[in-house]
Amino acid sequence: TVSGTSISFGTQVKFDDTTAPHAFQSCWDSDNDKLVIAWQHNANDSTAANRTGKAIVGTVSGTSISFGSEVVFENAQTYVGGICFDNNANKVIISYVDVGDSSKGKAIVGTVSGTDISFGTPAVYSAASTSARECAFDTNVDKVAIMFSATGLHCTSGTVSGTDISFGTAVRLDYSTTSNGSL
User: Fold this and answer.
1) Which long-range contacts (CB under 8 A, 24 or more apart) does 16-19 make?
2) Residue 180 — very low, low, confident or very high, per pLDDT cuts 50/70/90?
3) Furthest CA-CA distance within the chain
């Protein structure tokens, strides 16, 4: 809660019981007034196959937050790059790297209903080995923009239709192999 130049917090709530989850990203679903968090879930062992992509829906009430059930959106080792809300289609988009599929860059559309989230089929935005970066929604053209690194910095735009997303041709912004960017 922000009051003037001060901020205070309610009680923290755990939503992942593993020892080392990481790559957390979150967005606000303004259509449902819910928080959506996506992350790499690390099972309590060192097996790469157990580092799946998960998402969860949070409900804020006063200074408290409660969560629905975790949902797996990718069963392979996953690095979450970004998450954004498409307020035209009222969907959540998660961009990630699917390590189990040659580190391709993928995105998936999520639909929030109550305290649950369900997903469509992932779409590839980069067939090359990719480092996921970020995604953002452009309200002027109703498109999702994803910036990513794959032997240089690239950006692509996606259109959500129902529970699917399709992408145009990516534009290379920088040829450096160490490019970083943000949207």
Assistant:
1) 16/41, 16/54, 16/70, 18/42, 18/43, 18/44, 19/44
2) low
3) 49
CB 37 within 8 A of CB 26: yes
pTM: 0.90
For residues 181 and 175, the answer to whether their CB atoms sit within 8 Å is no
Q: Pull the structure tokens for residue 99.
A: 């390590």
Distance CA 163, CA 70 (A): 19
Q: Give the closest residue to 58 by CA, choosing from 94, 28, 93.
A: 28
- The β-bridge relationship of strands 51-61 and 64-67 is antiparallel
What does the pLDDT look like over 131-164, one tens digit per residue? 867 899 999 999 999 999 888 889 999 999 999 9
What tokens does 13 get? 């709530």
Q: Go through 157-177 and write b for each residue having 16 or more CB atoms within 10 A of its CB, e for each that does not.
A: bbbbeeeebebeebeeeeeee
Q: What would the two tokens of residue 25 be? A: 């990203």
Which range is least confidently modeled, 14-18, 19-23, 53-57, 87-91? Answer: 19-23
